[in-house]
Every structure is written in structure tokens, then in C-alpha cells.
Amino acid sequence: MAKLFRAVIMGPPGSGKGTISKRIAHNFGLQYLSCAHFLQELVATNKTEAGVLVKSYIDKRMLVPDQVVTKLMLPRLEQLSGHSWLLEGFPRTLGQAQALNELYQLDMVISLNVPFETLRERMSDKWIHPASGRVYNMTFNPPRVKGKDDITGEPLVQSEIDKPEALMARLRHYKDVAKPVLDLYKSQGILHSFSGTDTDRIWPYMNSILSAKLPTPNSESHSTPTS
Ligand SMILES: Nc1ncnc2c1ncn2[C@H]1C[C@H](O)[C@@H](COP(=O)(O)OP(=O)(O)OP(=O)(O)O)O1
Ligand SMILES: Nc1nc2c(ncn2[C@@H]2O[C@H](COP(=O)(O)OP(=O)(O)O)[C@@H](O)[C@H]2O)c(=O)[nH]1
């Protein structure tokens, strides 16, 4: 059996983690797990103590405490044993990275660096379908019908947290929390940073680095799914 590949993608809000993760998962046949989506699903479907606790943090857009999130994510990862995977949004903190390190040897950590001004422009053009989390950008990946989700036809909304002041605060927070995590992965020699203003220009570099490390079950081409 081919060696399993374990990767993590990191980057500030709006840097294209979700967009690029879907391309990687599609091209290389990895299982893609977004921690935020996983937590949101848990909140929606699991009315246990854990679900209620997670909801109390998500409602305030706060980070869920490390012990809580690792206790949920690590068993979820165990369900993916036998698969190569790409994690987005986990680990977010040094504590989470250390907990993950105890169980898995990561092959690669992708870090996206996108200038603030670009993030600000993107976020002012970003629309979401709240129920599914599908994300659109009015220039980069617009919905088929203006203002409507491609799958359900329901209305798209813009979020308060994507407005410039809120974005600036989220960015500052990201930098503080991510720095020790990135330092750890750098010291392990597995950090690959990609800088740029356009996902479509970053992607070919990333694709070629990944192609050297991974077999490609799917072709070079990519679709830009929104779910
Ligand atoms: N690994 C994690 N550890 C703790 N809390 C988390 C983690 N991942 C997500 N959350 C929480 C933080 C928020 O309350 C909520 C949504 O997270 P997320 O969608 O990542 O938004 P965000 O604004 O923090 O970042 P981004 O816009 O980069 O995705 O879930
Ligand atoms: N204009 C533009 N928008 C982009 C580009 N890449 C991603 N986006 C959009 O930027 C927003 C944030 O992207 P997303 O992948 O959700 O970033 P994440 O928050 O890091 O997961 C979404 O609306 C995307 O459609 C790009 O290269 N140019």
C-alpha cells in the first residue's frame, strides 16, 4: 500500500485555504477535513454536552478550548486511518499542534501568505450560503445566479466579520496564535510557505510541489467547487 500522506493547511482568514484545499483534495485524492465545518456539523447534529459547549464558543466566534477541540478532532481523524488527509483549521494553536504531533507525523504543512489589502478586497466581495458554508466571490467564483446559492437557490449573505475592522482584528489574532505553530513546523522542516495575491497563480507552484510528493489520481485540471 502507498505511504499515507498527512498535511495541514494554514493561513489568515480569506487567504484561500478552503479554495485551495478543495483543489488539492480533488487532484490528489486526499480526504479534506475542515475543523470549522466539522465543529459546525457537530453543533447542528449533536445536542450532547460537547455540542452545547462548542456552540457557546462558536456563537461568540471564539476559539474552542484546546482540550475540547482535540478530544473531538483526534477521534475524527482516527476514522480516517487508512486514508491520506489534509486538515484545514486544525491545529490552530501550539497546544493542538503538540497533541496532533503525538499521534501523527505530518509530511507537509502549507502556509498561505496573502497581503492584507488583498484579503480586504476579497472579503468585501465575499458572499456565503449560511446553511451549507458554501463561499462565493463576486469576481473570482461568482454564483450562477446573482445573490443565489448554486445548489439550493437560497439567498447569499455578507458577513459582519468580513468587514475591514473585524478582519483586521481576526488577522492580528491569527498572527499571534499561528506564529508558534508555524515556528514548530519550520523547526521540523515540513513548512512550505506560498505567497501571492492570486490563488490561481499560487496553485501551479503548490501543485508541482505536491506532485513530486504524491501520486495524482486525478488530472492536472481543477474545478473550483464551492461546497
Ligand atoms: N482548531 C480550532 N480550535 C478552536 N476553535 C476552532 C478551531 N477551528 C475552528 N474553531 C472555532 C473558531 C470559531 O468560533 C469557529 C469558526 O472558525 P472559522 O470558520 O475557522 O473562522 P475564523 O474566523 O476563526 O477563521 P477563518 O475565517 O480563517 O476560517 O470555530
Ligand atoms: N478575487 C479573488 N478571490 C479569491 C481568490 N481565492 C479565493 N478567493 C475568494 O476569497 C474568499 C476566501 O476564500 P476561502 O478559500 O474561503 O479562504 P479561507 O477563509 O482561507 O478558507 C472566497 O470568497 C473565495 O472565493 C483569488 O485568487 N482572487
UniProtKB/TrEMBL annotation:
Gene Ontology terms for molecular function: AMP kinase activity; ATP binding; GTP binding; nucleoside triphosphate adenylate kinase activity
Catalytic activity: a ribonucleoside 5'-triphosphate + AMP = a ribonucleoside 5'-diphosphate + ADP; GTP + AMP = GDP + ADP
NCBIfam families noted in UniProt: adk
PANTHER family: NUCLEOTIDE KINASE
Membrane-spanning parts: none
Identification of the protein by name: GTP:AMP phosphotransferase AK3, mitochondrial
Comment text on domains: Consists of three domains, a large central CORE domain and two small peripheral domains, NMPbind and LID, which undergo movements during catalysis. The LID domain closes over the site of phosphoryl transfer upon GTP binding. Assembling and dissambling the active center during each catalytic cycle provides an effective means to prevent GTP hydrolysis.
Cell compartments where the protein resides: Mitochondrion matrix
Similarity comment text for this entry: Belongs to the adenylate kinase family. AK3 subfamily.
Enzyme Commission number(s) from the entry: 2.7.4.10
Gene: AK3
